[in-house]
Specification:
346 residues; 5-stranded antiparallel β-sheet; 9 strands; binds 2-acetamido-2-deoxy-1-O-phosphono-alpha-D-glucopyranose; binds magnesium ion
Length: 346
């Protein structure tokens, strides 16, 4: 901590450091005293193999926004005294971001207004960057939302994964294979000129939005996975994480529900900013976005279970199997609601 804070010309002895948040990949702390308040994050270097790409992306976006949309709130990291966007010490890569005054995050969406606000903020992020040359962004996680590759990795795990786990997971394996048409549709999208590659956040869970004390959205945070992508990643991950009152961690699947008013809130919030940017074809795939992301997450958790939890880790033996089953249940429930959702897309 000493070395890290010194790189920012901060005196370590003068700060209180507490762990913060609950992401699966990066570790986060709040670093504060009576004057200053920061969020410190350790970038998971085994997953983000080129952390300098993250720093590069955030820097060029911050520069663009300060010229083109100076009023837009963007959570840019503090530069070190050597004018770098992150510090490297023996323990890894760290970056410091100012804590946005008066902001708070939430872990569970329990009011449709929160879903609306979040969807609006993620959409605004993509919209204000619609003039930004997206190919200038570096790839921080290759093939992150490449569903075809995820399907291949799943197939690979069926060959080389833990035999006993494969036997025990038959039902879920079959479910993934049965819904392979979601992958086929993704491949059509890749070929479709009506789908535009845009500045995409790729991790739109609710805890990545800062709210003010009146519950209005302030800005989006956690910019590691900002890369060129399709809007279905962002819209879909909101559906994955806001529609149900319980998260991917819930073991009692009877609690998994798909709440229509939250679907409406995501749709309206997203379209309030992106409605004029998206093609008719893109909008028409709004429900598909949800299926795309939920299916991908079910498959990623299942693949990890078959591979003995090497990616996500596990706090109990069947952890990733439970998460995969949870997401498969969520997908089923979303598919049951497709007709109703269509009618809500006005
Ligand atoms: C990971 O670290 P966190 O919780 O923001 C993962 C996401 C998954 C999510 C599932 C880089 O995100 O893709 O949707 O877990 N991020 C990475 O909880 O793999
Ligand atoms: Mg994240």
């Amino acid at each position: 901590m000493e070395k890290i804070l010194s790189a920012y010309n901060l005196l370590p002895g003068q700060f209180i450091v507490e762990t913060f948040g609950n992401g699966l990949i990066n570790q986060t702390w709040r670093v504060k005293n009576s004057q200053d308040d920061f969020i410190l994050q350790k970038i998971n270097h085994t997953i983000f193999k080129t952390p300098e790409n993250i720093a590069h992306n955030v820097r060029i976006l911050a520069d663009y926004l300060s010229l083109q949309h100076p009023g837009f709130l963007f959570a840019a990291p503090v530069q070190t005294s050597r004018n770098e966007g992150m510090v490297y010490v023996n323990e890894g890569y760290f970056r410091l971001t100012p804590y946005v005054k008066g902001s708070h995050t939430i872990d569970v969406v329990n009011k449709p207004e929160q879903a609306y606000e979040a969807a609006k903020k993620f959409a605004a992020f993509t919209r204000v960057l619609s003039g930004f040359p997206v190919e200038q962004l570096k790839i921080t996680l290759p093939d992150f939302h490449n569903l075809s590759l995820r399907y291949e990795q799943f197939n690979q795990a069926l060959k080389t994964g833990d035999q006993q786990r494969i036997q025990q997971s038959k039902e879920l394996i079959d479910f993934i294979i049965l819904n392979k048409s979601i992958v086929d549709k993704y491949e059509e999208i890749l070929q479709d000129p009506a789908f535009k590659r845009r500045v995409t956040h790729h991790d739109t869970k609710i805890s990545n939005v800062l709210f003010d004390d009146t519950d209005k959205g302030l800005c989006v945070i956690d910019l590691d996975t900002v890369m060129p992508g399709y809007y279905i990643s962002d819209a879909g991950d909101m559906m994955r994480t806001y529609l149900s009152p319980v998260s991917e961690e819930e073991k009692d699947f009877s609690k998994i529900q798909v709440r229509e008013e939250y679907f409406t809130a995501i749709w309206k919030g997203y379209m309030s900013e992106m409605g004029t940017e998206l093609s008719a074809e893109e909008k028409d795939h709004f429900i598909y976005a949800g299926k795309f992301m939920i299916y991908m997450q079910a498959m990623r958790f299942l693949t990890d279970h078959l591979n003995n939890d090497i990616y996500y880790g596990a706090t109990y033996k069947e952890h990733n199997l439970v998460r995969a089953g949870n997401q498969a249940m969520l997908l089923k429930k979303v598919m049951e609601k497709e007709k109703i959702f269509r009618q809500l897309m006005v």
